[in-house]
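Class prep. Write one:
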Amino acid sequence: MSEPGFDVTVTEGKRCRRTLNVKVPAGVVASTRGGVARRLASRVKLKGFRSGKASLQVIEKRFGEELKHQTVERLVGDAFRDAVASRGLKPVSEAEVDNVRAEPGGGLSFEVSFDVEPTIVLQRLGGFRVVRQTPPPADDFIDRFFAEQRAERADWAPAEGSPEPGDSVTVVITRFGPAGLGEEEPGHGAPGGEASEDAPSRKYDFVLGRNQALPEIEEAVRTLVPGAEGAATVDFPDDHPEEAVRGRQRRLRIRLLERRVPELPPLDDVFAKSASDFDTLEEWKARIAENYEEAARREADAAAHADLVRLVVEANDFDVSESLVDACADAMIGSVDDLTPEVRNDLKQRIRGEAEFVVKRRLVLDRIADEHGLRARQEEVDAYVDELIERSGESPSKAKAGLRKNAAIDKIEQMLTTRNVYKFLEGQSEITRPA
């Protein structure tokens, strides 16, 4: 098939790659070059000519290379657009031009390569069996929640003996050797800031067992009693804030000044009133259980949906282009300023398999939505937005303006569409609970 003025053939490559092999007759090349020359002549101002009145011969002589460049650019663009439109191709990457050659007699040939959307044929959407995991009971979560609430509101009482995890300690740490510990102010922070040659000893407060100090320091502190001191050999991690000690081993002297143990408040209605918006402990517990069960249900549903979609993708496998996978991997890594190109490329290679699945998953869900009429209707979107606005307490006009500004409406439409697809797929397969 040939586009007007062009002889175009399409070569299919691997992973949705297409290459246009284009031959342009001499007459089309000359006509295009003449049009480029006339447009350039109408804009340039040359000495000895009125603005826009320079002859085409002068333009050819003065701007020959520029004319050649613009002519090729115009022909490539025309051939690409015509071929894409006439063949129903859907590019997903930038076009790459190669092998531009002048043909005998004034013609031109070149190649244009690009990636296209994959061909997806949905042959199996159901008949799968997925196990929906049952979340653990809320009791353990509630116990952990209230243990944390009480710990956050504990009073600290001085105590003798060696500290245990959960105790608060005050220590003085002195460095040995050329590299030191921290530039933290006395009584603030945990060991490990900027180096300080004029203040090799520093006081620190931290709670054991909360990763506020290096493990070797915590281990040494737990062997001491208030007023005693000891030593520790510390292996500083490669990502330590102080560059001078990264990846190095240092010897430290540690003196325990004070140990404090938490005195937990009673878990009763008085505590509930002081720490929450509830009048009784039972009311607070009931709300925590309700929230936990709702979150656990959503998590179990999401896991089951992920398993089901993975089975659907695997049953309807297809190739996707390198450009789509590459763009997805970049998005997954995000904007991290301090990543070198080498580190970023290494990360992209590590997550490439996951990125390819993410691309396939999105394309399959979109195809199912289109083929089965599952796109969220406007009334669905409006009802969801109205519900959000009612919960927010804002005026409808202000809330909707904020949603539009943040492109949230489109995200809501996509979320509702995905939810419709999940519901459709659930109806085609069996979702069971563990035996």
About this structure: DSSP finds 13 helices and eleven strands in the chain. The radius of gyration is 34 Å. The longest strand covers residues 249-263. The chain has a mean pLDDT of 86.
